[in-house]
Amino acid sequence: MASVTGTSACMTSLSCSFKQTQGRISSVNSVSLSINGKSFPSLRMRSAPRFRVSCAAKPETVDKVCQIVKKQLALPADTTVTGESKFAALGADSLDTVEIVMGLEEEFGISVEEESAQTISTVQDAADLIEKLIETKSA
Amino acid sequence: MFSFVSKRLSLMMMTKVCCFQRNFSSALPPLVPVKLPSKMETHFWYVLPDEVKSESLLSQYSELLSPREKKNLYHMQGDQFKKSALLARVLVRTTIARYQTNCQVNPRSLKFKKTIYGKPEVDWENGDKWCPPPLHFNISHTSSLVACGVTVNVPIGIDVEEKQRRLKNKILAFAKRYFSPDEVKLLTAISDPEIQRQELIKLWTLKEAYVKAVGRGFSAAPFNTFTIRARVVKMGGFHHFDTQHSEASEIVVESSDDPENLTRNWQFALLDLAGSHYAAICIEKENSAGGEAGVPMRLTVWKTIPFVEDERVSGTGAVVPISGLIKQL
């Protein structure tokens, strides 16, 4: 399920209600889901990256992360950045990564520890971490 | 006695298998072999992607990669970036393959693994079991320069950065977020914003090189817990180092977490490379008892296009020492 916001295409992850499904989906193009016990036939995705089925960050958060990443890496407007995008694959070196973390800290008013920063490899990881930190902060 | 005999036989067999792989690629000429660096000697190899123009050569390079490396490359975005990522893998594979003195090693057959901390190293087990040299390596690349440093017996970390690299964030804000208080103080004292930017980038490369040499990941040595600075060392002999002055600057690292001063074990060099990049090298000193002061890093630098040409550039205008005790060979 893709939602296109503005000029950047940012895939949203499946929301929490799919938590019931089986682990990781291994095949690239087809996904078979079981929701609340009912199983659905395979859905064919045209050019889908692997979906990670997890309790994921809000689409707006993922989208903002995509924007910050695109800006930091000066990616051309037509570059697709999704939740599954790996920073390393987008051309981010270590200096870019720390600058992105700084940008995210400013944007979301959070503080990211080095240990956590090291575990982030995809846009989704960053978005999930951000929401966790926001949640912890307001708790 | 029996086990010795069978061991010897299997050694001979393995050596034969190892040596048979000479014709790893009929299209590519053999790599020029190089002797391993000796103790306290560092070898530094780099490739300028802009000098590698041949599409057929790049295609042959791709064939040296493992399936996983090819897959990673496939998913990368941006041609320049993809090319430098390819060259980084090719450089590390061919560089390590050059150092095999007993028999030739197919750069394609090399396997890599990561330590528990995530630092890449050669996995000799599955590959060419009987020719393992005790070599350490580290790579770094930008879209315009790809580098690989090699040492024997001691860990190494390197980092390269374009001299013209601009930060997206403000320099001092970045420094305050990531660097140590002493380093922030030093940068704040610089009034010229361009010099300030250059010093920040240099400091960044040194800190990165150190963390990579230590090899325990970013979080094991957060940047703001250690300070890297240049310290003037008065030397007796004039021609001992590259600098003609009687003073040389040694780069030292001090850790706020480490009162034992284990940080005395590390030696640094900072270079202006190819006129376009800052390159920082950090190696562990072999004998850390007492830590001899004033011993230079013996450094040999090659510019290469693997299988095509190698040019030793240490001591030329392509390698200009900025700080650190360095002796170019």
Automatic annotation (TrEMBL), chain A:
<dbReference type="InterPro" id="IPR009081">
    <property type="entry name" value="PP-bd_ACP"/>
</dbReference>
<keyword id="KW-0444">Lipid biosynthesis</keyword>
<dbReference type="InterPro" id="IPR044813">
    <property type="entry name" value="ACP_chloroplastic"/>
</dbReference>
<dbReference type="InterPro" id="IPR006162">
    <property type="entry name" value="Ppantetheine_attach_site"/>
</dbReference>
<dbReference type="InterPro" id="IPR003231">
    <property type="entry name" value="ACP"/>
</dbReference>
<comment type="function">
    <text>Carrier of the growing fatty acid chain in fatty acid biosynthesis.</text>
</comment>
<keyword id="KW-0276">Fatty acid metabolism</keyword>
<keyword id="KW-0597">Phosphoprotein</keyword>
<dbReference type="GO" id="GO:0031177">
    <property type="term" value="F:phosphopantetheine binding"/>
</dbReference>
<dbReference type="InterPro" id="IPR036736">
    <property type="entry name" value="ACP-like_sf"/>
</dbReference>
<dbReference type="InterPro" id="IPR020806">
    <property type="entry name" value="PKS_PP-bd"/>
</dbReference>
<keyword id="KW-0934">Plastid</keyword>
<keyword id="KW-0596">Phosphopantetheine</keyword>
<protein>
    <recommendedName>
        <fullName>Acyl carrier protein</fullName>
    </recommendedName>
</protein>
<keyword id="KW-0150">Chloroplast</keyword>
<keyword id="KW-0809">Transit peptide</keyword>
<dbReference type="GO" id="GO:0009507">
    <property type="term" value="C:chloroplast"/>
</dbReference>
<dbReference type="Pfam" id="PF00550">
    <property type="entry name" value="PP-binding"/>
</dbReference>
<dbReference type="GO" id="GO:0000036">
    <property type="term" value="F:acyl carrier activity"/>
</dbReference>
<comment type="similarity">
    <text>Belongs to the acyl carrier protein (ACP) family.</text>
</comment>
<keyword id="KW-0443">Lipid metabolism</keyword>
<feature type="domain" description="Carrier">
    <location>
        <begin position="59"/>
        <end position="134"/>
    </location>
</feature>
TrEMBL record, chain B:
<dbReference type="InterPro" id="IPR055066">
    <property type="entry name" value="AASDHPPT_N"/>
</dbReference>
<feature type="domain" description="4'-phosphopantetheinyl transferase N-terminal">
    <location>
        <begin position="58"/>
        <end position="147"/>
    </location>
</feature>
<feature type="domain" description="4'-phosphopantetheinyl transferase">
    <location>
        <begin position="155"/>
        <end position="233"/>
    </location>
</feature>
<dbReference type="Pfam" id="PF22624">
    <property type="entry name" value="AASDHPPT_N"/>
</dbReference>
<dbReference type="GO" id="GO:0005829">
    <property type="term" value="C:cytosol"/>
</dbReference>
<dbReference type="InterPro" id="IPR008278">
    <property type="entry name" value="4-PPantetheinyl_Trfase_dom"/>
</dbReference>
<dbReference type="InterPro" id="IPR050559">
    <property type="entry name" value="P-Pant_transferase_sf"/>
</dbReference>
<dbReference type="GO" id="GO:0008897">
    <property type="term" value="F:holo-[acyl-carrier-protein] synthase activity"/>
</dbReference>
<protein>
    <recommendedName>
        <fullName>holo-[acyl-carrier-protein] synthase</fullName>
        <ecNumber>2.7.8.7</ecNumber>
    </recommendedName>
</protein>
<dbReference type="InterPro" id="IPR037143">
    <property type="entry name" value="4-PPantetheinyl_Trfase_dom_sf"/>
</dbReference>
<dbReference type="GO" id="GO:0000287">
    <property type="term" value="F:magnesium ion binding"/>
</dbReference>
<dbReference type="GO" id="GO:0019878">
    <property type="term" value="P:lysine biosynthetic process via aminoadipic acid"/>
</dbReference>
<dbReference type="Pfam" id="PF01648">
    <property type="entry name" value="ACPS"/>
</dbReference>
<keyword id="KW-0808">Transferase</keyword>
